[in-house]
Amino acid sequence: MTGKEPLLSAENLVVRYRSHNREAVAVKHVSFDIAPGETLGIVGESGSGKSTIALAIMKLLPRTSTVEGQIKVSGTEVVSADAHVMNTIRGTTVGLVYQDALTALNPVRTIGSQIAEVCRYQLGLSTREAYQTSLSVLSDVGIGDPELRYKQYPHEFSGGMRQRAAIAIALAARPKLLIADEPTTALDVTVKAQILRLLQDLKAKHAMSMMIISHDLEVIREVSDRVAVMYAGRIVEIGERPEVLASPRHPYTRDLVRSAPSVEMPRISFIPGSPPGTGAIITGCAFEPRCSVGHGKPNCRAILPDLNGGPQAAACHYPLEASTKPMPGNPVGPNSSIRLHTKEL
Predict the structure, then answer these.
(1) Are 102 and 154 in contact (CB under 8 A)?
(2) Which of 50, 53, 60, 97 is nearest to 81 (CA)?
(3) What is the pLDDT of residues 224-272, one digit of tens each?
(4) 289 pLDDT exceeds 90?
(5) Which of 105, 278, 301, 344 could form a disulfide bond with 24, CB atoms 3.0-4.6 angstroms apart?
(6) Rg (Cα) of the chain, in Å, rounded?
């Protein structure tokens, strides 16, 4: 953290889904902050609760869900907020880039009309002003000939351009925080690098904070200031990006980093086993059955580890020792490997 008042803070966040007579806990007592101008990367396998956190912040979860804990955005409590309060937060304070740009865009409306709607509704602009602002936003996200593109439909855009259009919609009301959920899914390596560079440029231009959600470790490595690693609904490690990725303290983080091959270490590694189901009852550490450090140890099976350990916190009974040397084949600096290789975990 930078010492500034957090733009976003989540404390002891719990999200449950109900289905008939069953209940599944998707997010379990998660706490984190995002400071002004900071980028937090949230990484983990599919089903770890990453997207649920984003939807909880925007209060867009289905009615079958319940949210406990506290979420504050610019000092405003979100969990108990009514529709009027949320309408003032969505778009102007927090913008969301949904996971799949193809399905996030309305196929029967032009790209420009979807951006202009945000400008009129959130900023109160006239039709003419919304049009001019939409052209400006399209230009900001690197879409050439904005007058022509404004009139086109999503099916007339390539995958990379649709992703840029989705980012444009999220940025139309100039939010303080941009949440990007899997912003590079289904994009080739070249377009992926372009989108990540675009996000970094937009963050600097508009002095935004960002929360990047991905299961692609290279994306997290490229854009994040801090990293939160999630497993089975919990944050198992959180800290500054260089420390977490170069010298992980949780065995899951270590194995996750090893699973991303690089040019120097092209050998493909994997974590044996599978994560527990959302409805599984777990008394100890959820990673214990797959862990080479704590597997079979009584504490790991019976006692849930707390997330502690200072600036680089790890929820582990037997945390790995910090090292000053980067893990082999896994550079930690920005722009270190995304241009050469990308591997979705």
Answers:
(1) yes
(2) 60
(3) 999 999 999 999 999 999 999 999 999 999 999 988 776 666 666 788 8
(4) yes
(5) 278
(6) 20
Tokens representing 254 are 């270590």
Residues 6+ apart with CB under 8 A from 216: 43, 182, 184, 342, 343, 344, 345
Per-residue DSSP letter, 90: B
- Distance of alpha carbon 301 from alpha carbon 285, whole angstroms: 6
Looking at residue 224, the DSSP 8-state letter turns out to be -
d(CA 64, CA 285): 27
Q: Residue 57 corresponds to which tokens in the numbers above?
A: 């912040």
Q: With both helix axes pointing from N to C terminus, report the angle between 111-123 and 159-171 in degrees, rounded to the nearest 10.
A: 10
Q: Is 181 exposed, middle or buried (0-12, 13-18, 19+ CB in 10 A)?
A: buried
Averaged pLDDT score across all residues of the chain? 89
- Can you say how many angstroms the Cα of residue 159 is from the centroid of all Cα atoms in its chain? 20
Rounded CA separation 102/170 (Å): 15
Predicted pLDDT at 329: 46
The helix or strand, by DSSP H or E, that contains position 235, with its residue range, turns out to be strand 234-240
How would residue 334 be classed by pLDDT, with cut points 50, 70 and 90?
Answer: very low
Owner of token pair 């936003």 = 137
Q: Judge whether residue 203 has pLDDT over 70.
A: yes
With a CB cutoff of 8 Å and minimum separation 6, the contacts of 182 are 51, 99, 100, 213, 214, 215, 216
Q: What is the mean pLDDT of residues 21-25?
A: 88
Residues in the chain: 345
CA–CA gap between residue 322 and residue 325 (Å, rounded): 9
Q: How many Å apart are CA 285 and CA 315, to the nearest integer? A: 9
Residue position matching structure tokens 């963050």: 203
Containing 231, the helix (H) or strand (E) segment is: strand 226-231
Q: Which residue has the tokens 């941009």?
A: 178
